[in-house]
Amino acid sequence: MEKQKLSGYIMVGVGFAMLLVNAFNYLFNWDIKFPASTVLIFGLAFVVIGLGISRKPSK
Q1: Which of 37, 40, 50, 56 could form an S-S bond across to 11 if both were Cys, CB 3.0 to 4.6 Å?
Q2: In a domain, 41, yes or no
């Protein structure tokens, strides 16, 4: 597997984890000090950019 695709998959995983933490923070009323909008925006950006990187055809 290429390094670029691997980094895309890692970005997707990190972004998905950020979205899960944000959702669990909201559902279970945890006291996490990060602003929810920031975590949501960065999580979505990581997922979208990571999917774009990992889906590029290899040369």
Answers
A1: 50
A2: yes
For residues 45-54, give the mean pLDDT.
Answer: 93
In a domain, 59, yes or no: no
Compute the distance between CA of residue 53 and CA of residue 15 in angstroms, rounded to an integer.
13
Report the Cα–Cα distance between both ends of the chain, in Å, rounded: 12
Q: Are 8 and 53 in contact (CB under 8 A)?
A: yes
In a domain? residue 11: yes
Amino acid in the structure at residue 54: S
Q: Which domain holds residue 11?
A: 3-54
Q: What is the mean pLDDT of residues 12-32?
A: 90
Residue 13 confidence (pLDDT) above 80:
yes
Helices then strands, counting H and E runs in the chain, come out as 2, 0
